[in-house]
Amino acid sequence: MARRRANAGLGDVEELGMQLTPMIDVIFQLLIFFIVNIKFRTLEGLLKAFLPKADTVPTRPDPNKDQVFIKITEASPGNLVLLVNNQPVGGTTEKQKYKSLEERLGGIKEGFEKMPPVIIDADARLPYRYVVYALNVCGKLDLENVMFMFPQQ
Amino acid sequence: MAIMKRPAVSAGELGFDMTPMIDVVFQLIIFFMVALSFVDSQAAAKLTLPVADQAKPPEERDKELFVFNVVNLNARHPDGTLVFPPGTPPYVESGRYLNTAALRKELDDAADVSRYRSEDKKTVQSAVIIRGDRDAAWIYVMAAMKQCQEAGFIKVYLKALESEEPAPRSP
Hints:
The complex is a heterodimer. By secondary structure, chain A is of the alpha/beta class. In chain A, 37% of the residues lie in helices and 20% in strands. In chain A, helix 3 packs across helix 4 (128-140). Chain A starts with a helix and ends in a 5-residue tail after the last strand. Strand 1 (44-48) of chain A pairs antiparallel with strand 5 (155-161) of chain B.
């Protein structure tokens, strides 16, 4: 198709020296291949997960140490509750709750020269995203010392 | 458009000059080649990552990676049937479904390879990337992290989307 039409337009091919039509055909094929195959990179990134040493995995909060204890639980299915040192954070939607978690942690961070370890305790059956959001908040505040408590089954 | 029109005037003499068109087409090809990303074979299709704006692009130096997925076993099709039949293990690695013990075996093998390749034959330099579904139960991710730690991995990362995809799944 392309060849015949292009030739008709070119008139005398001899004079041109080089036959461009097949190359253009191939290039169009390539172009179509790449257009069809394209799947734009989804912006996937990595969050650092904190692995405590095996013997320091806390199983419950230690009241004698400076610790920031984040409890993630649900009052009823879908009703997320975030507690920082047993004090619930404000907000009605998920987003607001994590926003006020960020504010609360930021306030705590300012009160200390060196931020005490943050321990995240999430219920076993909760969706994993709740923990990722909490980790995200910790990342935003540059908290380096974060631990996970093993959920009670 | 302008290119297409202009030759019509001088068509009798020359045919038309294809050089600019070829230039443009080459540009297009290069653009699509660069933008093309082939589907990651390690990724599981039935997975929606959580969104975390603090997620950083992977570092170049972590070349050896052990990637596995944690699926949401309670996921349901729109008609209410379970996506995964009851009893499906929660971990997927290279298309295979693994339970905790099988995952541990894979992690141990990967850690051994990494130890063997390291200079002092002791440190595990490979990193583990956990791709968890946003609705997967936390216990499975936590259990997997524990296995990574016991297998000797030091670097463990959680994969997340840096921003919500254009067509997010309804929560």
